[in-house]
């Protein structure tokens, strides 16, 4: 049976991994663990096709440990027992456990002592947030690393490697992949390398050779194989980002028809991922405190669209797009947090006041921690005048309120009233 290209191109050494260089690059944490042969169990979480299985495979290959793959949802406790027996006989086994958030208590109880002894190096893979969806007993025995969608440059690198590899890749074919096709392949899959490689393989193997025994892969061929339409990709690959930029600026500028037009381009391209992600950013960046309810409804619309998929997902998204366009706008919350971050990053802050410091340990009182803290709920209206910022920046004002919309005007009035009460 012929394995898919993405499976065949899976790395066998840590140095072969494409992307995720913040984890596997020289001197980074997983690379250091492998080089020092000090492996510990871990959970890798992030979107599909971003390299979770590749990292596990490369760790096993770099350390020469046996590598096994199971699925927490579909494989049984008996399957785990087989891996455990192998570990007893041959030493440590690296076990990639996919969908680890689906691990039930019986399998978990079986695994825990094996992790404690180091007989199995568990690498859990999940698309779910492990801090919410994975049992604390497993979390406490693992390190948690987030993996991110690959960049277009990462995907281009992997495609070129696959086209040049005669043993595992497509090097035995004479392929002419156009620049436009390469750019579309590297951007349309939204950082999912598996989709890009499998789309490439379908294109190569389903396209007849020309008279020169060469397979010409054009943009239209890749569109057909990915079942997505190009947004008008150019050689620089900017078209994808231009549409997203125009989409956000149209909503920010309150032009409903322009926003729907650019949303339509993304929907026609099948790019639900970029559309919903950008819509969430727009809601909180450009509308924000002027209409918090619209932000909440945008989250609901995005959830509905993700559950429905396309084409039905376009309907809740259209509702959100129109409301965000016609809503009052405010970027005051984003500006406020950016102002605070600027001080933190430049070192412009001082000591936390003693009365705000943690006092929940023996000896804290002797150090003056929390001694003079006044508990607001003990006072009328649940408020008491008290300094919260460090002395060095005690009069700092990060939030600059606006009156754009009934909600933020009310928040502004309350904010200014409180500042006066604090003596600012």
TrEMBL record:
<dbReference type="GO" id="GO:0005524">
    <property type="term" value="F:ATP binding"/>
</dbReference>
<dbReference type="Pfam" id="PF00004">
    <property type="entry name" value="AAA"/>
</dbReference>
<dbReference type="GO" id="GO:0008047">
    <property type="term" value="F:enzyme activator activity"/>
</dbReference>
<dbReference type="InterPro" id="IPR051314">
    <property type="entry name" value="AAA_ATPase_RarA/MGS1/WRNIP1"/>
</dbReference>
<dbReference type="GO" id="GO:0017116">
    <property type="term" value="F:single-stranded DNA helicase activity"/>
</dbReference>
<dbReference type="GO" id="GO:0000731">
    <property type="term" value="P:DNA synthesis involved in DNA repair"/>
</dbReference>
<protein>
    <recommendedName>
        <fullName>Replication-associated recombination protein A</fullName>
    </recommendedName>
</protein>
<dbReference type="GO" id="GO:0016887">
    <property type="term" value="F:ATP hydrolysis activity"/>
</dbReference>
<dbReference type="InterPro" id="IPR032423">
    <property type="entry name" value="AAA_assoc_2"/>
</dbReference>
<comment type="similarity">
    <text>Belongs to the AAA ATPase family. RarA/MGS1/WRNIP1 subfamily.</text>
</comment>
<dbReference type="InterPro" id="IPR027417">
    <property type="entry name" value="P-loop_NTPase"/>
</dbReference>
<keyword id="KW-0067">ATP-binding</keyword>
<dbReference type="InterPro" id="IPR021886">
    <property type="entry name" value="MgsA_C"/>
</dbReference>
<dbReference type="Pfam" id="PF12002">
    <property type="entry name" value="MgsA_C"/>
</dbReference>
<feature type="domain" description="AAA+ ATPase">
    <location>
        <begin position="38"/>
        <end position="150"/>
    </location>
</feature>
<dbReference type="InterPro" id="IPR003959">
    <property type="entry name" value="ATPase_AAA_core"/>
</dbReference>
<dbReference type="GO" id="GO:0006261">
    <property type="term" value="P:DNA-templated DNA replication"/>
</dbReference>
<dbReference type="InterPro" id="IPR003593">
    <property type="entry name" value="AAA+_ATPase"/>
</dbReference>
<dbReference type="GO" id="GO:0003677">
    <property type="term" value="F:DNA binding"/>
</dbReference>
<dbReference type="Pfam" id="PF16193">
    <property type="entry name" value="AAA_assoc_2"/>
</dbReference>
<keyword id="KW-0547">Nucleotide-binding</keyword>
<dbReference type="InterPro" id="IPR008921">
    <property type="entry name" value="DNA_pol3_clamp-load_cplx_C"/>
</dbReference>
